[in-house]
Every structure is written in C-alpha cells, then in structure tokens.
C-alpha cells in the first residue's frame, strides 16, 4: 500500500445476482490528483463510486480511501469524502442556501457557521444571486453546481464525482471543469467518472478506461491518446460524389490509417499533427472543395472501437440523456 | 506530497448527542419543505374534514339516533383512523427520497445511518398534531363537547407516541417498495380493514362473534377507545395500556426490520 495514494483498490469486485458489475478492478489515485474513470453507460463506473463512497459493500476485493478500509472503517472514510452522484442529491423544494445550510447543520456545525459556509460556497459557485430560489427553479448547470457545493460543505479531502457533466451544455460543462480544477489546486483528490474522453483529457492526471466492469486501459491522457489515436479527423467534401475520391486519397497518402465513411464524411483516427496540413494541400491540388475539415478528440465510441474492436453499446439517446429530475 | 492517511476531519461529533442533533436537522429540512409548500397542510386536512362531515351527517342519525350523539362517539375514532393513515405519508416520502438519490448524499456523510429515517418520522409528528387540531376544531364547531382541555393535550401526546412507533411499519414499506404507488397500495390494504374492524366507528358489540373477537384485540380499537376516553367519555386506563403495549410491540418488530431493509437496499 503506497502512502501517496488517496484511493487504492485491489481486485475490487461487485456482483448483483448473476451480473458482474465490477470485475477485479485495481486502481490508484495519487493524493492531490484527478483519476478519470472513462467508460460507457453500464460499464460499472457508478457501482465503483458507490462502493468507494461506502454506499455499498464489495462482493470481493478491497479498497482503501484516505488510508482506511472502505468496509471496516466506513465511518472514518465518511469523515473526509464528498460525493456528487449522477442523480442530483439536492432537495428541490429547499432554496440553494437552505440546501447547503442543511448539510452544514447535519454535519454538526453551529447554525451561524452553517450559514456562513453556505454563503461562502454559493459565492464560490456563482450561485449567490439564486441563493433564495428553490432548487427546482435552477437550470441543469446550476443544479449540478449546487450539488457539487453540497458535497463540499464539510471540506472533503477526497471527492467522488460521478458523471458530473452528463446532460450539461458545453458552457455549463466548462464552468464545472473550472470548479474542479480549483478544488484540485487546493489539494483535493478527485475521482471522476465520465463518458467523455474530452472531459477526462481536460481534468484527469491519469485515466482508467473501463468496460463491462473491467479496466481495459490505463495511463496518462497523453499515453492513452498515443495508444488509441486520440484525435479524429473529419473530412466532408462539398459534393457527395467525391467522397470516394477523398477516401482513396487518404488511403493512398497515409496507408497506415484506416479511413471510415460515415454519414457523408470521412473519419480517420490520427496521431500525427502533420497529417492535417499535408492532406489539406493534396485536397486543394485535386480541386476538392470541402464543407468540413475538422480535427477533434476521438469520441468515446472511437476509443472503444480501437481498444476493444467493437462499438460501445451506448446509444445516441443515452448520450443525450438529461439528468434525472 | 501528503501522506495518504487524511488528517483529522474538520467535523467530528460522535455519540448520541450528535445523533439527536442530526435527527433534528433532518426534521428541520422537512419543516422547511412545508414552509415552501404550505398547500401540503391543506391537502392533508381535506380527507379528515370530509370524513368527519360525512360520517356525522350521513351515518350519524342511523348510527346513534342523533348526529350529535354520534359526533360524541365517532370523533375519537376518526382521529385515531386519520393518525394511522397519516403514517403512510412517512413511507411514501422516504420512498421518493430513496429513488431520487437524496439518501446517497446522506449516506456518504459522517452521520448516523438511522438519522434520515428517524428525522422524517419525527418531522411527520408535526402533521399529526396539525391534524388533531383541525379535526378537534371542526368537531367543536359541529357541537362536540370536550371532556377536559387537559384530555385534549393528553390525546395529542398519546397519538404522537403511537404514531412514532407505528410509523416504522410505514418506513419498512417505503424502503421495501419500488414505487410510491406500491407503498400506498400496501398501506391501504392494511390500514383500511384494520381501522374498520375496530371500535373507531361502531360499537363492536353489534358485530358477529368472530369479528368481535378480532375487534377486541385490534390496536385501532384500543387507540380509538383511548381517544374517546380522553376527549369525550368512557374509560381511559385500560385502552391506554393496550395502546402502548401495541405501540411497543409494533415498534420492536418493524423498526429493526426497517433498518435492516434500509441497509440492504443500499448494497
């Protein structure tokens, strides 16, 4: 057991009847860093977080959080963790301020301290203007911020964030990322689960990719991207008829790549930044006009295609799922 | 880099005093909910008001010869019945919180595991007191003759003690059921026959023998007789004793089962 790891699991396993939700997971999060756990719906992310936050017990294996065993010393673990679940744990009838004050009182703070802490968090999370509004009047992003604030009332040193931005628009997502970075800068260790490679890339020092309850890849974002072709180039010709010509050109110039034709565009995973200008010049020389020429991070789907040779079972509907009311 | 073992937490207040404080905080949350949604109190007053008016003015004449005599008999019974129905809302409320993930937050905090459940039960006692005030107030307007004012306070106290105990049955159903509707169905199937096969609304001597045998031991009979004794007429001591025996027995069985089911629910 390393002294530098805030979270450490060994063979962590969870069965629900016949279903193996989590299978022999070994993970570690160094103190003061962010461990990103990346995986599709149903991969076992929430199951793992619930066990680490002492909400449920493992079927087999062990885990230590802050140096304490999650089963034997659960009460101790709960004194220094914070949890923001996938489903909002705030009371919709209460105002933002009351929600936070309530947690403070629950933690044994005198009323005055609980009020002060609530005000402090509302200001930090840019919710002061909405402090007196009931949580049900909050937007999705505000609600997530309030939920995150509620998990921070007791100043946890280790924070579990279970898909904190699922269902949020890009702006709200960016705001939440900023808040998480701030917490890490203050020394908090964060375990974050996500379905978005971009989110893991933005926040995590280390990423573990899990699928069907198993860890299928680990590494820093850079290592992982190198392994899976972290970027994806999308090329859409103006004329649909020239799609095949574009595919042929890519295959001819860069035979090691595997361009795919999808929805009227070519998608190709790339590792080398030099490919983009070279291809742009070639396409121009052949007079192929483009409507899209875009280099972005690989989607989770592409990551999984590379790692497992199959697509995720995450359907488009689940990707766009709104957080539960 | 800091060592993995986290330094002493900012907040650490173990012991029974802390548990009491946590239960009170949980109850505070419930009271704030009522403050933001006062219609809840109107909602929960409607059914006892309708029951009281309908029972007295529809059945009263035939039941007791006059509506005023029946009012004198049935008010205690209706208060007992309503108290038992009210405990159902404790279960449905807990069921809703469980499914929304509110309890996940509670369970990740350094607080007693029983605090969320006990806090909800405790807060719901406010609704019990509210209901008895509404029913007694309406009864007085309808011409009810109160035995003594002290009796009314004692009746409220007995009712709260009984409700505190049997609420655990509702909590058990709230934890076990997978939807609020199911909690309501379970509760209805138990509470409806239980309250009607008692002395709450009629003299049990008019019932057939097998029914009388049950009605005599039915906890609702004892609670209704206690209410009647304290508010209007009849003996108090014996029904009061049996009311507490039943309350203790129901608590002793359902509270541990509810806590066990609650722990299991979370695996």
Q: Helix and strand layout, with pairings?
A:
The complex is a heterodimer of chains A (325) and B (267).
Chain A: E1 5-16, E2 19-30, E3 34-38, H1 45-52, E4 60-65, E5 68-69, H2 74-78, E6 81-84, H3 96-106, H4 111-124, H5 140-150, E7 158-162, H6 170-185, E8 189-194, H7 197-203, E9 206-211, E10 214-219, H8 221-228, E11 231-237, H9 243-253, E12 260-262, E13 265-270, H10 275-285, E14 290-297, H11 300-308, H12 316-319
Helix pairs in contact in A: 3-4
Chain B: H1 16-36, H2 39-64, H3 67-100, H4 102-107, H5 115-141, H6 149-176, H7 180-196, H8 209-217, H9 219-231, H10 237-265
When the domains of chain B are counted, the total is 1
Record field, number of beta strands of chain A:
14
Number of strands of chain B: 0
- Which architecture of the largest domain in chain A per CATH? 3-Layer(aba) Sandwich
The quaternary state of the protein chains shown equals heterodimer
Number of contiguous helices of chain B: 10
**What is the assigned CATH homologous superfamily of the largest domain in chain A?**
P-loop containing nucleotide triphosphate hydrolases
User: What kind of sheet is the major sheet of chain A?
Assistant: 6 strands, mixed
Q: Order of strands across the biggest sheet of chain A? A: 6-7-8-3-9-10
Which secondary-structure class do the elements of chain A indicate? alpha/beta
Entry keywords:
heterodimer, A: 325 residues, alpha/beta, Rossmann fold, Alpha-Beta Plaits, four-stranded antiparallel sheet, 12 helices, 14 strands, 35% helix, globular, disordered C terminus, B: 267 residues, mainly alpha
Could you describe the 3D structure shown?
The complex is a heterodimer of chains A (325) and B (267). Chain A has 325 residues and is of the alpha/beta class. Chain A folds into two domains: 5-226, Rossmann fold; 231-297, 2-Layer Sandwich (Alpha-Beta Plaits). Chain A has twelve helices and 14 strands. In chain A, the strands form three sheets. Chain A has a six-stranded mixed sheet, sandwiched between helices. In chain A, helix 6 (170-185) links the parallel strand 7 (158-162) and strand 8 (189-194). In chain A, helix 3 packs across helix 4. In chain A, 48% of the residues are buried. Chain B is mainly α. Chain B has one domain. Chain B has helices at 16-36, 39-64, 67-100, 102-107, 115-141, 149-176, 180-196, 209-217, 219-231, 237-265. In chain B, helix 3 (67-100) packs parallel to helix 6 (149-176) and helix 5 (115-141) crosses helix 6 (149-176). The radius of gyration of chain B is 21 Å and the shape is globular. The two termini of chain B are 34 Å apart. Mean pLDDT of chain B is 91; it is low at 8-13.
């Amino acid at each position: 057991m390393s002294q530098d790891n805030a979270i450490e699991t060994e063979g962590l396993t969870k069965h629900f009847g016949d279903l193996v939700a989590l299978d022999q997971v070994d993970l570690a999060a160094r103190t003061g860093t962010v461990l990103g756990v990346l995986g599709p719906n149903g991969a076992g992310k929430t199951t793992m977080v619930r066990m680490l936050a002492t909400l449920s017990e493992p079927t087999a294996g062990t885990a230590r959080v802050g140096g304490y065993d999650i089963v034997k010393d659960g009460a101790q673990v709960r004194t220094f963790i914070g949890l923001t679940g996938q489903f909002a744990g705030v009371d919709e009838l209460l105002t933002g301020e009351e929600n936070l004050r309530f947690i403070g009182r629950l933690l044994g703070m005198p009323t005055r301290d609980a009020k002060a802490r609530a005000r402090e968090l509302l200001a930090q999370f840019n919710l002061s203007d909405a402090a007196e509004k009931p949580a049900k009047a909050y937007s999705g992003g505000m609600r997530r911020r309030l939920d995150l604030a509620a998990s921070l009332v007791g100043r946890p040193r280790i924070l579990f964030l279970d898909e904190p931005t699922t269902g949020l628009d890009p702006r709200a997502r960016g705001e939440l990322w900023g808040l998480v970075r701030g917490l890490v800068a203050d020394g908090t260790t964060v375990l974050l689960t996500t379905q978005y490679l971009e989110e893991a890339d933005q926040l995590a020092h280390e990423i573990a990719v899990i699928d069907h309850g198993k860890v299928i890849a680990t590494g820093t974002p850079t290592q992982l991207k190198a392994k899976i072709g972290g970027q994806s180039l999308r090329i859409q010709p103006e004329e649909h008829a020239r799609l095949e010509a574009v595919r042929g050109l890519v295959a001819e110039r860069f035979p090691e790549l595997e361009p795919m034709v999808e929805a009227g565009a070519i998608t190709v995973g790339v590792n080398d930044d030099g490919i983009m200008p070279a291809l742009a010049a070639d396409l121009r020389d052949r007079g192929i006009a483009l409507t899209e020429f875009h280099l972005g991070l690989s989607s989770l789907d592409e990551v999984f295609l590379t790692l497992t040779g199959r697509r995720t079972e995450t359907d488009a509907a689940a990707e766009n799922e709104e957080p539960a009311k | 880099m800091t060592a993995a073992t986290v330094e002493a937490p900012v907040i650490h207040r173990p012991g029974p005093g802390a548990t009491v404080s946590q239960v009170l905080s949980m109850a505070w949350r419930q009271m704030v909910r009522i403050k933001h949604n006062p219609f809840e109190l109107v909602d929960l007053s409607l059914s006892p008001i309708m029951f009281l008016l309908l029972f007295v003015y529809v059945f009263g004449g035939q039941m007791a010869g006059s509506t005023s005599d029946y009012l004198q008999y049935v008010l205690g019974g209706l208060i007992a019945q309503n108290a038992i129905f009210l405990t159902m809302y404790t279960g449905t409320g807990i069921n809703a919180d469980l499914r929304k993930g509110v309890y996940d937050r509670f369970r990740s905090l350094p607080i007693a595991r029983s605090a969320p459940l006990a806090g909800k039960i405790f807060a719901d006692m406010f609704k019990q007191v509210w209901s008895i005030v509404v029913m007694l107030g309406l009864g007085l307007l309808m011409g009810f003759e109160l035995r003594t004012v002290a009796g009314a306070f004692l009746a409220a106290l007995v009712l709260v003690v009984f409700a505190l105990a049997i609420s655990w049955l509702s909590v058990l159903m709230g934890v076990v059921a997978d939807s609020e509707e199911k909690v309501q169905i379970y509760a209805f199937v138990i509470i409806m026959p239980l309250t009607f096969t008692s002395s709450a609304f009629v003299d049990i001597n008019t019932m057939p023998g097998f029914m009388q045998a049950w009605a005599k031991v039915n906890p609702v009979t004892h609670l209704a007789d206690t209410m009647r004794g304290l508010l209007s007429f009849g003996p108090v001591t014996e029904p009061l004793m049996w009311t507490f025996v039943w309350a203790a027995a129901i608590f002793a069985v359902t509270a541990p089962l509810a806590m066990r089911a609650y722990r299991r629910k979370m695996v």
